[in-house]
Amino acid sequence: MPAPLSTLAPAKVNLFLHVGPVKSNGRHELDSLVVFAGPEAADRLTVEQSDTLTLSVTGPGAAEAGAGADNLVLKAARALQAEAGVKEGAALHLEKMLPVAAGIGGGSADAAAALRLLTRLWDINPRHARTIAPQLGGDVPVALLGQPAFMRGEGEQVEPVRLPAPLPAVLFNSGIACPTGPVFAAFDDAGGGAGFAECGSLPEFADLGGLIDWLAGQRNDLESPALTLHSALKPPERTLNGPTGALLTRMSGSGATFVCLYGTLDAARESAESLRAQQPEAWVRATLLGGADLS
């Protein structure tokens, strides 16, 4: 039997997220610059040949993610089977290291990892994975690409972009679950999205400082409704003693993870150590944001 196939499923980070008004189908137009964390902030998915489709889940987030039919890994596998007419099964194992309902696309990253690995295992055309990715969720197409990109439309429009360099960052999640549905509902109830417009193309930056300055002029439209729904949800510098030294702090996705950008990876690591010491129960990772490491 061939050796199992394995890949990382790294966290997705929205460096900004503009959201349009709710549409008749219940979804929204999006405009977001998306990057991916390094291996420090990633799940891992492994697949091997089997007559049937099965999923097992271990790791710190296993209980929250579950291994039932609602897990996006199984949904992706079944959708790919149907799209490509595959009769084979697969035994999938997910090591769930990322927090759940955290705004960093963990489930979408896992689904994209399943599409990549099963495309190889079943020896099918990658176009099948690209075809079904949008129906699995707005973040799945960009997670399937795994590179810095503008994500637009309902998530199905993905345009790769080039950053001047990877972004040193700290990802901070205090452990507050922040499911996407209620945040979008609060956004809609507040009449959000009336002034929605795409930001256009990414300017050329000489260095990371220019990129961070430009990002400071953008926003995450879901941050305010998330903070309204969850009064205990606050950026790390508002909950812990002393400044974090971040050049920019912004919530990712619909929350509850904050991304803090730094000038150097050493500064990010130092801040992460400080945050862990002050809030040991929080999920904190220092990383470089850019393209996904899928090894």
Characterize the structure shown:
The protein is α+β, with helices and mostly antiparallel strands and 295 residues long. The protein is built from nine helices and twelve strands. It has helices at residues 62-65, 72-84, 106-121, 127-136, 140-145, 180-189, 208-216, 223-229, 265-278; strands at 5-10, 12-22, 28-36, 42-50, 53-58, 89-95, 149-153, 157-160, 167-173, 248-251, 257-261, 283-289. It has a four-stranded mixed sheet with strand order 1-4-6-5. Helix 2 (72-84) packs across helix 4 (127-136). The protein is globular. The model has no long low-confidence stretch (mean pLDDT 95).
What are the salient characteristics of this protein?
single chain, 295 residues, alpha+beta, four-stranded mixed sheet, four-stranded antiparallel sheet, 12 strands, globular
Number of separate strands: 12
Helix share bin: 25-40%
Structural class: alpha+beta
Q: Report, as a whole number of angstroms, the end-to-end distance.
A: 21 Å
